[in-house]
Design a protein that fits this description.
The chain is mostly helical and about 170 residues long. It has 2 domains: about 1-85, Tetratricopeptide repeat domain (Serine Threonine Protein Phosphatase 5, Tetratricopeptide repeat), CATH 1.25.40; about 105-165, Tetratricopeptide repeat domain (Serine Threonine Protein Phosphatase 5, Tetratricopeptide repeat, Alpha Horseshoe), CATH 1.25.40.10. About 80% of the residues lie in helices and about 0% in strands. It is built from 9 helices and no strands. The relative contact order is 0.07.
């Protein structure tokens, strides 16, 4: 009985190591900008360990970079199921929704990301963009200022140039 438990633990350890190796290969490919290769490696990591959260998150990003927004959303759906408190998964899915022009879904996910991590400057940044697309300039301005306070001032500069900020 004890040997079965030990064998099971060893198998789990080996699977996790294999998934981590595929994950590392995916990260290297992504760093080179080879998103197809990254997707292949992240997929192998997921096949090896279907609960490898970071592989779903990184594959979602790779899909986003090649314009496969629905695939990015699908991977972030799994990431949210694996970790419902992962602000990055909500932010990434919100950005993919934004790219598809689904601004209300984008705002909803970005709001969840901010609720989980109130210091997530990029979530404020993209939510401000989504607010602009839905003609909610006051809310966009508030988020742009918060994003800037958190270190991401590009949006405030853009809004000032477009005349939406007058101060």
């Amino acid at each position: 009985m004890r040997s079965c438990a030990l064998l099971a633990a060893l198998c789990c350890l080996l699977l996790a190591q294999g998934a981590n190796e595929w994950f590392k290969a995916g990260a290297k490919a992504s760093d080179r900008g080879d998103y197809q290769e990254a997707i292949k490696n992240y997929s192998l990591a997921i096949e090896t360990d279907p609960k490898h959260l970071n592989s779903y998150l990184n594959r979602a990003s790779a899909y986003y970079y090649i314009g496969e927004y629905n695939a990015s959303i699908a991977d972030n759906d799994v990431a949210v199921k694996l970790d419902p408190n992962n602000a990055s998964a909500f932010k990434s899915r919100g950005v993919a929704y934004f790219a598809l022009g689904e601004y209300n879904a984008s705002i909803a996910d970005l709001t969840k990301a901010i609720k989980i991590d109130p210091s997530f400057d990029y979530a404020y940044y993209y939510r401000a963009l989504a607010y602009l697309e839905t003609n909610r300039s006051d809310e966009a301005k508030k988020d742009a200022l918060i994003a800037c306070d958190l270190g991401n001032c590009d949006l405030e500069q853009r809004l000032t140039a477009e005349g939406l900020f007058d101060d």
